[in-house]
Design goal:
Length: about 375
């Protein structure tokens, strides 16, 4: 059973706290914050760790820490998934997950926690089922325009819609029947020194936010040329599926999974998914593919010795962005591995070539790498 549940701000302030069993010290919030902040070797604290016989399990969303403690032998994956479900419930009812949203809706969140967990035992994390027991009205929060929104974080609604699921129960004539469907993908590519793709993968999700009263049944149609794994044979009525899969324009997925509300009776026939969407946001389909595709950017690098110093090397990284100016792009990161002997790295962006933002044609990044003389000696053994 879970002994305690609490939510901490980035400064370590306690925003929400529930003690269910009383077998963990009250100072556990401060102990967790100090231990996680000053973890060994300056590294980030793992999601599960033990301190003085108390197991701390935590996740971080929107800058706040959701933490569960226990002295028993609980499944860490179960508790971490429970914490993520709590994040989804808070977001569905408050419209947005942030420190301000939690502070302004703390009465509603305490009411939800009383129904979600009882004596340390999780009961229900279904947004639709909890609507029956919620009496407080939420203060819906909208994120600031300047606030960063990671691509695959719960803070970012895929459609940019921030409203509470309780709006579907309004009887004052202001209720709007709405449903939003969006495809969110995360692209991971590894480029070699010549700028060619060494490996690539796409992790995607079909996200749905439903604000339909009465939960009417709906149908969602996917591409006719969709093929799942190599064992997916062409289905009736699609004669050229095999030819498309060999070199055409078919969409080939390595694997996928569906939400429990999805009815797949006709999926193998016409790629139609029937469902009765529950209230709130959920992932109807998660998928992964590693088949060849053209990435929206290209990366090339060159390494040269600095003529002004025997202890420096100049790494020039060229980044070509091929995303059209009218498209949106976010969450792009460039990771440059360096040897252990590197002591300091200084990065400059050439203003004449542009900045690594949307619409970029080419970015010229000059990195000054300071290391030992042995690291820069081509005849020496690699460090």
């Amino acid at each position: 059973m879970i002994s305690q549940f609490f939510i901490l701000s980035p400064r370590g302030d306690v925003i929400i706290r529930r003690d269910y069993l009383g077998d963990v010290p009250k100072a556990s919030t401060e102990i967790f914050f100090r231990t996680a902040r000053f973890w060994s070797d300056g590294e980030e604290a793992p999601p599960v760790f033990n301190h003085d016989g108390v197991t701390y399990m935590h996740i971080k969303e929107a800058g706040v820490e959701l933490v569960a403690t226990t002295r028993g032998n609980l499944s860490p994956s179960f508790v971490l998934e429970f914490l993520r479900r709590v994040c989804v419930v808070i977001k569905d009812y408050c419209g947005f997950l942030s420190e301000d949203a939690i502070r302004k809706n703390f009465v509603l969140i305490y009411e939800l926690l009383d129904e979600i967990m009882d004596y340390g035992l999780p009961q229900s994390t279904s947004t639709e089922a909890l609507k029956t027991f919620v009496l407080n009205e939420p203060t819906v929060m909208v994120p600031k325009a300047s606030q960063p929104r990671p691509l695959f974080s719960l803070n970012k609604g895929p459609t940019g819609v921030f409203k509470s699921v309780l709006d579907t129960s309004r009887t004052d004539g202001k209720r709007r029947e709405e449903i939003f469907v969006d495809v969110v993908e995360r692209l991971t590519c590894t480029f070699n020194a010549s700028g060619y793709i060494a490996s690539s993968q796409v992790d995607g999700s079909v996200q749905i936010k439903s604000y339909l009263a009465g939960n009417p049944p709906i149908k969602i149609k996917l591409n006719d040329d969709l093929m799942i794994s190599k064992r997916d044979t062409p289905y009736p009525g699609h004669s050229d599926a095999g030819a498309a899969g060999a070199g055409g324009h078919s969409v080939i997925l390595d694997d996928c999974n569906f939400h429990e509300c999805a009815n797949l009776e006709s999926f193998d026939i016409d790629r139609t998914i029937s469902l009765v969407p529950p209230d709130g946001e959920f992932a109807l389909m998660n998928y992964r593919t590693s088949h060849g595709f053209k990435p929206p950017f290209r990366v090339t690098t060159s390494l040269e010795a600095d003529p002004a110093s025997d202890f420096k090397a100049i790494l020039v990284l060229h980044l070509w962005c091929e995303v059209p100016a009218e498209r949106a792009a976010s969450g792009l990161e460039v990771e440059v591995p360096t040897p252990r002997c590197v002591q300091r790295v200084h990065c400059d962006i050439d203003p004449k070539q542009g900045l690594p933002v949307l619409g970029l044609k080419k970015a010229h990044l000059l990195m000054e790498v300071l290391g030992s003389a042995r690291a820069l000696d081509r005849d020496a053994t690699p460090c």
